[in-house]
Fold this sequence. Notes:
Pfam families: RRF. Keywords: Cytoplasm, Protein biosynthesis. Belongs to the RRF family. By secondary structure, the protein is an alpha+beta fold. The chain has two domains: about 5-25 and about 105-185, Orthogonal Bundle (Topoisomerase I, Chain A, domain 4), CATH 1.10.132.20; about 35-100, Gyrase A, domain 2. The protein has helices at about 5-25, 75-85, 110-145, 150-185, and strands at about 40-45, 50, 55-60, 65-70, 95, 100. The radius of gyration is 22 Å and the shape is elongated. The chain starts with a helix and ends with a helix.
Amino acid sequence: MTIAEIKQTTQGKMDQSIVAFKNNLTKIRTGRANPALLDTIHVEYYGNHVPLSQVANVSLIDARTISVQPWEKGMGAKIEKAIRESELGLNPASMGDLIRVPMPMMSEERRKEMTKIVRQEGESAKVAIRNLRRDANEAVKKLVKDKEASEDDQKRAEAEVQKVTDRHISEIDALVAAKEQDILAV
Length: 186
């Protein structure tokens, strides 16, 4: 593996970490409704547990209400039960075939808890980025040890990997700040 390949794979893995972090942020509840909030819910369907999105259409009615439209008649009660029993604190209401999931107002205390969760997720993402930096630096050091690269190449590569790391960490910080702003907005 060359230094250029090490830098390229590290950049790709860091980008994947950012994508995973963004995906985790969508699951954290704010005051507004978001269909992605229900992505973690699984429903029993003919003996198997499948994601909600595979048995129903999930969409927004308005800024504070999610609608869930089951594709089969008998699934409404199971979907409603799965949403109610999830750890999201939601209380769905059936209206014929349609299930409405209103977003409850969040208390100030709950908003602060959510910002702490966002910060923890951000810190986890930063740790993942730093681990990737460490792995890249170790791979470059191995090349130098095996006499496949010079020490000057090592210094340059480490500096470039550090720049990429700093850029990704600042992106995580920006995402955390934006999510906190979203949560704290009443």
